[in-house]
Known about the structure:
- The structure is a homodimer.
- The mean pLDDT of chain A is 90.
- In chain A, helix 7 links the parallel strand 5 and strand 6.
- Chain A is of the alpha/beta class.
- The first copy, chain A, is globular, with a radius of gyration of 22 Å.
- In chain A, the strands form two sheets. The first copy, chain A, has a four-stranded parallel sheet.
- Chain A is 43% helix and 13% strand.
- Chain A is built from eight helices and six strands, in the order H-H-H-E-E-H-E-H-E-H-E-H-E-H.
- The interface between A and B is large, with 54 and 54 residues.
Amino acid sequence: MKNFVEPIERLINEFSKLPGVGTKTAGRFAYSIINRTDTEVREFAKALTDAKTKVRYCNICGNFTDKETCSVCVARDHSIICVVAEPKDVLALEKVRSYNGSYHVLHGVLSPLDGKGADDIRLKELLARLNGGKTQEIVLATPTNVEGEATAMYIAKLIKPLGIKVTRIAQGISLGTELEYADEVTLTRALSDRREI
Amino acid sequence: MKNFVEPIERLINEFSKLPGVGTKTAGRFAYSIINRTDTEVREFAKALTDAKTKVRYCNICGNFTDKETCSVCVARDHSIICVVAEPKDVLALEKVRSYNGSYHVLHGVLSPLDGKGADDIRLKELLARLNGGKTQEIVLATPTNVEGEATAMYIAKLIKPLGIKVTRIAQGISLGTELEYADEVTLTRALSDRREI
């Protein structure tokens, strides 16, 4: 945009790097910043750098934490471990409050096309956790897409020989979805995994 | 949200203060920040504080600038002044490249219900600009809502007695709008302001 003020232009550029934000939205964000007080803007800037510098991976599960070991790992039962791809998946599962075990965050899935192999996700760390012999079940909650499925299968093959129960989260029709709108794979899965009531 | 890391929580809170951003979007923003490099995050934080500390009002038109006088005021003809409510309006008008005069940013409109009177918008500054006697036309481009109209009428009444031509941007049917969907006020305006072709 022409005739624009350099510091504002730079801020708009930064905002437009956020996921799903175009220049128009970034512009609205930038103008809203200029209308705030100095203190408010400084706090925002500090929150940004703090989130980057103070947050690290939990030394057990790999989830984000600002301590050595995250609060979930400290509080929970480690005999059951739920394996997820990303930290936000832990958040989604924690919100429903129906799981009381611990987690393991892979920080990615196997994706040969993107050059992501077994060494690029936190698989070694998962296997190391199983050495103590206390783990009874691994719940695979990687995404239900092709890469997520392949990653789940790969992990299952690694862990089953250790004599640990390996499960996969159920797939089927979502609540409220009309049968006619469900995709074929989901529908096939919903039928094959049907249960007696 | 429970079990959440304080620095991330704080950043999500900051992002959710942006216009139109809810906690879910703010969460996606925050996670995207943690996945960036230290340098990138520092640059973002610096862009924030710079936009706040380096940007001020142009001493002539009141638009945002990082200099004493903005680039538009330096380059343009001041015999015609377009009066707008907000800096973003200047941007919108500049994008169409069909106006070559200067601007005056009021930073608000008259709004008795919000306690905004003539002293709360940059009206004195506008009148001071007219003292030189070189101004030939004032184009009122305040919003086309009730407050914007009232502000335009108020300014017209102040300036007309000075012998300066006062105009208002045209109102009518937008390009591509079907007549049946145009609101009544716009339609009435489009009829009364019809022109010969």
